[in-house]
Write a structure and sequence with these properties.
The longest helix has 27 residues, at 71-97. The chain has five helices and no strands. The protein has helices at 6-14, 23-40, 42-51, 56-65, 71-97. It has one domain. The mean pLDDT is 84. The protein is mostly helical.
Amino acid sequence: MLQEDPITTLATQLEITLGGNDFTTNKKMLAERINVLIQNDFQKLISILYRLDVSEEKLKFLLKENIESDAGVIITDLIIERQMQKIKSRQQFSQRDDNIDDSEKW
């Protein structure tokens, strides 16, 4: 199975092209794009967060607790965390399926 990359997945959702394989640089680019969406297309950002299943309560809490921090960075970190949770979940379920007899699979 191909290893999923949460940064690449997020870049696709945010409609940006990444600048290479450097995690820090790509994360910075994603945070900048999120800040642009906050300023210019907040509704689109909300839609993306909903589609990615980011916890609204956790996001509100983090933004409230980190008022002086860059909101784009906070949101990027939260999205990456959520994407990593999804990847781990998919891996667990795919491993579990390997232990099922073929006659029992759908």
